[in-house]
Write a structure and sequence with these properties.
Blueprint lengths: L8 E5 L4 H12 L3 E6 L2 H14 L5 E5 L5 H9 L6 E4 L14 H29 L2 E6 L12 H17 L3 H4 L3 E8 L5 H14 L3 H10 L9 H12 L10 E4 L9
Parallel strand pairs: 1-2, 1-4, 2-3, 4-5, 5-6, 6-7
Helix pairs in contact: 1-9, 4-5, 7-8
Length: 262
């Protein structure tokens, strides 16, 4: 299926590795020009080189910086001629006990996982509406659907973003102008972050990392971890011209791990 995205421009955050990279690669495969941003310049340039080699017909621009700062956002936005597609993505805050978190930890979580996406949405959606096309995909977490006790910072910040999006996405000035805003909620994906989480779990329990990983996979009906490529494919689908009637939704991609009906 032709997703109708060729020649569009996308700003993809946290795109040097993992799920963000998967989204950038999937969009580039559809002919989308991409501006990719992340804090690590070396990994970012390696990703850009790989995308250029695989898809020589698209333009790939890199912006190394912290998207959670005003300077980082300004640099990323200025590198993109027009933002037709915005993929918001930032690493989650660390796990822990809420009793150990102070105001500083809460503000950092809110800045990265709630306020930064809102600022980028604010900077781009009116231009999208004027042009009659726009897609915003926020990469949040399956923990928004089924909160995890040790991820209180993430639960709170990402749920705040989810509530904000639920109202904004339904504004007629956006939805009525073919601008959609949806959230993509990953479960367990085979990324560097997951490997670190599994390693930490192994160290805490005294088990081998392979045992911890096997136990985690066994709890997923699909019996495996997801891949960044298939996550990116779903992101590209949400950005397609065919998805103009889907907005304000939370799409859970977790191999069936969430046991609920709704």
């Amino acid at each position: 299926m032709d997703l109708g995205l060729k020649g569009r421009w996308a700003l993809v955050c946290g795109a040097s590795k993992g799920l963000g990279r998967g989204c950038a690669e999937a969009l580039a495969a559809e002919g989308v020009n991409v501006v990719i941003t992340a804090r690590g310049a070396e990994a970012l340039e390696a990703t850009a080189a790989a995308i250029r080699a695989a898809h020589p017909g698209v333009e790939v621009r890199t912006v190394a910086g912290d998207i959670a700062t005003a300077e980082g956002r300004a640099a990323a936005l200025s590198a993109c001629p027009q933002v037709d597609i915005l993929v918001n993505n930032a690493g989650g805050p660390p796990p822990g006990d809420f009793r150990d978190w102070g105001r500083e930890q809460w503000l950092a979580a809110l800045e990265a996982n709630m306020l930064t996406p809102i600022e980028l949405i604010k900077a781009t959606v009116d231009g999208m509406a004027e042009r009659g096309f726009g897609r915003v995909v926020n990469i949040t977490s399956g923990a928004v659907k089924a909160p995890i006790d040790v991820l209180g910072l993430s639960n709170g910040a990402r749920s705040g973003l989810t509530g904000f999006v639920a109202g904004l996405a339904r504004q007629a000035r956006l939805a009525g102008r073919n601008v959609t805003i949806n959230n993509l909620l990953p479960g367990a994906f085979d990324t560097e972050r997951l490997q670190k989480t599994l390693a930490a779990g192994a160290a805490k329990s005294g088990q081998a990392a392979d045992e911890v990983a096997a136990k985690r996979r066994a709890g997923i009906p699909a019996q495996r971890f997801g891949t960044a490529a298939e996550f990116g494919a779903v992101c590209a689908m949400l950005c397609s011209q065919q998805m103009g009637y889907l907005t304000g939704q939370n799409i859970l991609l977790d191999g069936g791990a969430y046991p609920g009906t709704f």
